[in-house]
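User: Can you help me understand a structure? I only have the sequence.
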Amino acid sequence: MTDEAVSTDTDPVKIVADVEAAPRRLQPLRRLLPFLLRYPVRLGLTVLFLLVSATTSLAIPAMLGGAIDEGFIAQNLDSVGRYGWIIIGISAVMAFASGARFYFISVIGERVVADLRQAVFAHLLRLETRYFDRHRVGELTSRLNGDTTVIRGAVGSSFSLALRSMVTIIGALTMMVLTSPVLTVAVVIALPAILIPVIIYARRLRGMSRRTQDALADLSAMATEMLGANRTVKAFSQETVQAAHYDSRSEASYRAEVKRLSARAVLVGLVIFLGTAALVGLIWWGTKAVFDGSVTAGQLAQFIVYALMASGALTNVSEVLGTLQTVAGATERLTEILDTEAEIADPARPVALPRPPLGTVAFEKVSFSYGGAGGEKVLDGLDFAVGKGQTVALVGPSGSGKSTTLALLQRFYDVGSGTIRVDGVDIRDVRLEELRQRFAYVEQEPIIFAGTIAENILFGKPGAGMDEVIAAARAALVDDFVSDLPQGYETLVGERGVMLSGGQKQRLAIARAILKNAPILLLDEATSALDAQSERLVQTALEHLMAGRTTLVIAHRLATIRDADIILVLDGGEIIDRGTHAELVVKGGRYAELAKLQFRLDEAV
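Assistant: Let's start by predicting it. Here is the structure, written out as C-alpha cells:
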C-alpha cells in the first residue's frame, strides 16, 4: 500500500574544548514532522501495527501468570496446554504486526530522507552566489549526504524503537498496577531515581553530536578541496604537508567522537545498573508479598515479566536518546540551510521582459562592494549602454571590476547603488529565471560536468533534440574532435572535463551557449588561457556564436576585440576611457600603451 505526499568556520582545534557548549535539547527534531506528516497513510499504518505489536506483547505475561496459577500451582496440564496455544496465537499476531511495523517505518524513513535531501539541494541551488562565497562546498556536501544518512537511520529504526518502547513502558506500568497495586508502589518509588539521572545526562549528548558532525564536515570540505586540486598538490610536493593537516583535523574529530561515545556509554551503563538494582529490590519485595499472601506466585511472575519489559524498554529509550542527540545535531545543521533566506529572490510583482527580446543593456551609475555598504568599492559610478547587436569589450587590469560587471548583470549580486537595465527593465523587477534566460555565458575556465559530451551541451537547453545538439557542436567546432572519438557524443569527459584539453572544453562551453540561443552573450576572457592554435579555433567558434547577438566581452588579448563597437577601459572600478580600437589608439592613454605593447609582441612572435 502506498500514499502520495499530501500537499500541505569549524576549527577542529576548538572542537574538544567547546564540545559541551552547544544547546542540549531535541527541539530540532520537530522540523522533521512536516516531512513525516506528508504520508499519513503509511504513518497511520505504522502506528497501528506498532500498537498491535506492543499490545500483544503485553498480553503474553498475563497468559503466563494464568498458566502458573492455574496450571503449575494447580498441577493442571490441560490449563498449561490451553494457555500455551493462546500464547502461540498471540505471538503470531505480534510477529505479523512487528514485521509490518518495521516495513512501513523503514519506507517512511527512506521517503523522509529523500524528501529532505531534495528540499535542501533545491534550496541550495536557489541561494545567492554570496552564500557560497562564505561557505565551503565540501562542508555543504557533507551536510547534504552525511547528515541525511544519520537521519535515515533514526527515522527508519530509532523513532520506531522509541515509540514502541514508550508504549511498552506505559502498557507495562498499567498492567503492573492491575496485577498488583502493592508491588507497583515499589516501582513508583524507584522510577524517578532511574529516569531523572538519565534525562539530565542525555542532554549533554546533543552538543557533542553537533560538534562531531561539524568536524566531519570540515574533513569532508578539506578532502574535496585537496582531491579536486590533486595536480596542484603534486606540483608543489604538498602530499606530506596536506596529509599531516588532514591527520590533525581527523584526530581532533576522533577525540570529539570518543568523548561523545564515552558519555553515551556512561548513560547506557547507568541505566543498566539502576534498572538491575531496582529489579533486585522488586524481587525481594515481591517475594515478601507472596509470603504474606497478598499476591500469588503467578501474579509475582507476571509482574516481574512486566517489570523486565519496562526495564528493557527503558534501556532502549536510553540508547535511542543517544542516537536522537546525534540526529538532532544533523537535523539542526540541515535546517540551518533551509532557514537561510535567499538575499536575491524574485520580486513580489515581477515585470515581464519585452518579447521578442531587444538585446539591450544599460548600466546607470552602478556602484558595488563585496563587503556591503561599508566595504571597498569594486565598481564606482559605472555608466554605459549597449545597443541591440553591438559588441562591447571591457578592458583593464585584474581587479578593475570586469568580471564583477558580468556578475551584476546576471544578478548574482545586487548593486549597491544605481540601476542595471536589460531591454529597458530594471533587472531587480524581473524574475531571476526569465532574466538569466536572456544571457549565454562563456567563462574563462568553463565548468564541464562529469557526464557525456552530449549531456554537457544539453545543459544549455535540456529539452533539445540530438539534431540541435549536433548543429550547435558543429557551429562551435566541437564536432571536429568528437567525430574521432569511438563513442562520439556519448563519450564520458570525466570530472571537470579532465579527459578534454583546454581548447576542447572551451569549445564545448561555446556549443552549450549556442544551443541556449540567448539574445545577449557574455564572454569572460574565453581565449586568454589557450595556445595559439586552440585560440584560433575558439575564436572562430565565438564568431559563429556572436553573430546577430548583443555581446559583452572581457579580454586581455586586444587582438580578439579589435572589431568591437565600443571598448570600455576600466581601472579601479571606473571607466577611464571609451571608444573603438582605432579611436583609443589615436587618443593615446592606457589602452594605447597596452595595444602597442601587445601588438609589438605579436609581431615579434
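Now, to help you interpret it: The longest strand covers residues 361-368. DSSP finds 20 helices and ten strands in the chain. Let me know which part you'd like to focus on.
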